[in-house]
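DATA SHEET
Item: assembly model
Revision: 1
Owner: S.N.
Input lines:
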Amino acid sequence: MSEHVVTDPRPLAAVLVSAIAVVFIVASYRYPNVREGWSVLAALAKFGIVASMLPGVMDGTIYVWSLEEATGLQFVAGVDFALRADPLGMLFALLASFLWIFTSFYAAGYMRGLDEHAQTRFFAAFAASLSTAVGIAFASNLLTIFVFYELLSLVTYPLVAHNEDSEARIAGRKYLTYTFFGGGVFLLAGTVLVYWLTSQAGEATLAFEAGGIGLLTDAAASDPAIAQAAFYLLIAGFGVKAAVMPLHSWLADAMVAPTPVSGLLHAVAVVKSGAFGVARVYLDTFGLEFPTAFPLSVPFVGDVPLNIPVAILAAFTLTAASIIALRKDHLKRRLAYSTTAQLSYIVVGLSMLHPIAVLGALLHIPAHAFGKLTLFFCAGAVHVETHTDYVSEMAGIGKRMPLTMGAFAVGAASMAGIPLLGGFVSKFYLLIGAASGAEVATFGLEVIWLWIFAGALIVSGVLNIAYLWPVVYTAFFESEDRHDAKPLLEFRAGGQPESYGVLEGEPNGVVATDGGRDANGEDDGREDESVIDEASDGTTDHGEDDDAPLPDHDDPERDAYAVDAHPSDADVPFGPGSSDSSDGADSEHVHDHDTHEATGSHDEHNDDRSSHDDKHDHHDHHDDHHHHGGAPMGGWERKSPVTFAESTWLMLMPITVIAIGAITLGIVPDYAVFLELADTIVEAVTGEGVR
Amino acid sequence: MIELLATRYAYALMFVLLGIGLYMVIASENLVKKLIGVNLFQTAIFLFFVAVAYVEVDGEPGGSPVVPATTEPAAGDLILASPLPHVIVLTAIVVGIALTAVGLALIVRIHAEYGTLREDTLREVRADE
Amino acid sequence: MSDVDLLPALLVVGPILLATVPVLLGLRYDRTGWSVALGTTLGVFAGACYLALEVYSADGVNREIAVIHELGGFSQPMGIELVADTFSTLIVLLVAGTALGVLAYTRVGGPRGNTFYSGYLLLVGGLLGLSMTGDVFNMFVFLEIVGLGTYALISSGDGPESAFAALKYLIIGTVGASIYLIGVGFLFMATGHLNMHALGGEIPGLEGQNLQLARAGFAFIFVGFAIKVAQWPLHSWQPDAYQHAPDGVTPLIAALVSTVSAYALGRLMFTVFGGDFIAATPYAAAVVVTVGAVSVIAGSTLAVIQTDVKRMLAYSSVSQFGLIVAAYGLLTETALLGAVIHLIGHGLMKAGLFLAVGVIALGYGARTVDAYAGLAQHRPYVAGSMAVLLIALVGIPPSIGFIGKWYIAVGAIEAQSWLVAGVIFLSTMLTLAYVARLLERMYFTPRSALESPRGTAGTEPGPAAAGGALTDGGRAMGATAGRRVTIGMLAVVALTAVIAVVLGFSGDVFTELLAPFIESAELEVSP
């Protein structure tokens, strides 16, 4: 397909629209409605500009704006500061600008619902970060993308540290460290190496070319080690933002930010810019033939194509993160690990190098965005309306927020890859791509690896259901006074030792699976009765007991039972049904905190990098003595979905629209623009379309 | 080695003076003595330059670079020590004087404020602030 | 000589002569110092701009387009020249601009008095002389004039610490300059010349004992300047000097004195000795690069642990100059270009940063990192400008700090010196470590969250009650004898921040401007 390059100020306009809006937002700090109006206006304008370029780009026109053409200034000797709207850039820019429109409404509703401080700074930083995200999308060479990449890290930092408490500051520091290490160190090093390599082969250039920079491939022939180093440095640099393990732990901690930030930025703009950057590296810097043309020679193994280690890391991430997400009680953290996993779908798809897999990966960018944004928005709406953050407290919340949790179900289905939703289409292509790649693979081990990757994708899909379905289930199919304990969340990793037949401190070591008898014998009946009586009341005063019901095998009462102390599960620890009021819950939490101190209540970011078994996570909310989540006394209020009474329209409207978007991507992918765009990209890079 | 030292004794002396000066700067406790050390350091350099300027040809030492008023050259060429380093040294001496003056002024002020010129005492007093 | 040729001499002699005027006028009138200084620096700035126009609009080899003034009419190699070529003119512009800008602060915030402004003008004259001199011994003289001016200005602060810091700087700085003089002596012994251009012609041809002398000379000269530029491990005078100098003096000396010293080092290394000589001298390039690289790491590490902001920025200077010295040692064209760009950029940024620190100390009373908590809320403009300058210092594009770092990094890769390249890339993180600390305090730490530190001049005692937060600021301001921040100060700080960002797009412009000098250095593109 021929490229038809046109000079046009629209890419620059798309970037600058929200940068200019920042000024207006700050200026109208006294008038919240006007200020929010600027955000919406800027979002609409940005989307309008980007969408206006879409028809041309689909036809093969590429719109370029270059500082050198406009002013005669080169940014750095030999490198231009240029923006260009090509299909890959359009994919990301269209996505980001479209979603921003609705996020600005949502953010307004969210911030006002919580009466947050520093809203002007928030909205200004938000607008600026969208400006830099579109800059990343339209960057036409490695240096320009680097500039916007760094600016994105900088501008999103105030959003991460928004709360200004010590937790937010720590998360902010971690965020800065990771993103600037990735950007400022790895990415810059890779860019300089590419610049030097191309200067060896001809005129130094950093400009992206569909199919790879020609001079780079030429130079790599004479200096493969440096080219390989450049490849890995660039992937690592973008991989930090794309939350590939082991560089992923900033993402979970960044969830302290307000939900619009977690949603748009950390599920859509920031992390997607990392994945987008990886796509640029594979498709437009090195090309899809490069990894196999210059393999690493690993001792004892032979030649390893460059993409295999990246794909291995990505496959590991998507499995491990899904497993970690299983044990997260804090909903946003669960979603953060879900994001970590889903982004690695994109990286693994790109790393499989087969056109169909690449198509799947590129399509996953919007598919995941729509689904995940729905999920985050729902989580945020729940937080605003009920101050509930923990899944274990969300029993029956479907009564209170039916529309929201319905949208959550849609988003969850999309994440899991259920047909009729967006996530299915992209995952379908990914799996087909893995299988097709296995057919044409040249390196022996590659076949095995590709099947392993396909397997990882399927396993992760199942795990997706495993960690998202309980939320939907507990919202709709459980009620606040009678819900099951969730073993994955509330008990130790690996289960109770009693389940394996080991009772500590019990010389007989007899395990009773039937409810058993108390070791003392006489008190059995009374104990049982009192427990059962209280259980059947539906309310208990266990909060006032010294021995609060705990899965703690040091408790003598506890030894009598095999698995847990309360057969009816009515009074789950940490749950709303276990005490009369949230004060009781707090005191239990304090008590729990004391007894579980021995097992340690570490913040999870200490454990993240080392294992996929995070043992201590369910203690994390013990550290937060401020939360008042959970159902109020008397249970959730019932709200009807039809009357939109559960929350403000500012939040409900975006949730609905984006959920519908996720459905649209699944039902009519041919008409939703993204599939065609992705196909155009693949065609430009490999010379043949997929569909 | 001895031969070298005997002929180039000026340079050897220069380094000895440098060493003494530096030692005074580092090791003496009194600030004035430190300043004197700096002066000694600079004087060593002056000695160096003057030594550099010295010219000896066939055992004939060069005369002092004063050009006589007459324009009639005597028999043969004039063999003169190079005047340029002497000029350098003069300038450097002046610079050294200025620095010493400023340094002493600062020392006077320090003494007025702290009442002592001993470095270890000053360190204690300043650490307490 | 044509008119333009007089300009370098006027630029040097003018401020020195006019330095006597405030003292003379002070006999009769009071407080004339600032006006005289303003007039002089305006004139100097205008002259520098005119000079820049002349130099940069000409085409040709570096030596041809330079504006050269022969002092006393004696031509080289006997006479002393003042040379304004493409390299030194940039430095002259920086000196003139900074001297002018800092005056906006000293009118209200700085030390007052006619003698202070005499010293100020003397320092400016000395700096201009050091930038433009073409004779190695003349450089020593100007180095000492600059030193004298600096010692005097540093000690003009209240309190005895400034006198002590000045004395420490005096002793160490004089030893440094003297070591440089030894190096000059060796060079003179080897070649018989003192003129830089003549030396540059002679040195490549040296052999035998003269070559050894020249190498020894290089070693002494480098060590002398390492002291003056405050490289590790010879940097210990700098934190004290910057911290205890009055707030109006620190921007001047931080931005200019070390910068011009680093310029002088570059001038000597590339115009006098030349890249080939240094490359041929065993270990010379390695030592230069190592000293620079270690300074980068040591400076940033020490900066992170500081509590006083000025001291932190002083260690930051050690680190940034380490980058420049390491770039000098790489001996490639791109690295040299990067070093010069970073020299200018860093001077600009440090001037702005120290001015901002002074404004904050004046108007808000905060001097330590902890006391900066919540600054963004109370003093948004200063905090904003300072944030922009700090971010530019880290090297986040688009900013002048990034441009310099880019070229140095490319130069390091071209020279295939991977360790140095690694240090350069890591320097971003190291700089970020102390910058982020300050930014976090300013923007994301509410004021009541942290106790106010002890022992800081003019700050309120103890954690204030919620309502007292604003009134404490007022008390602090009252404590500094009713001085207040003027619009002029804020404007200069904001202007510096804006320039730092705008220059971030000017990589190409710098390349063109400096091309004649880089070519004259005759470095290989990559060894």
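QC remark: The beta strands of chain C are 67-70, 81-84.
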